Amino acid sequence: MSIQSTKTRLDLFVEISTAQQQFLIGGGDVNAGPIWNNDDAKVKCPRTCDSVGLQWNGNWFTNDPGRNSVCGCVSR
Prior knowledge:
- The protein is 29% helix and 43% strand.
- By secondary structure, it is of the alpha+beta class.
């Protein structure tokens, strides 16, 4: 994994990987804990994506039954 230093608007240097940069630019799947059904996703996914500065794209899937699902998030 490559690491790059990025200067922020506050003149702080933050080191993030290339993969993290690509995620922040285009979005991706974000862990949300267990999601039980579509109605549950409609509540949890908007909050989950918002927590990382993204917007829910309406998609989700379970990757570890009973333990974790992910929400599809995109840039705003």
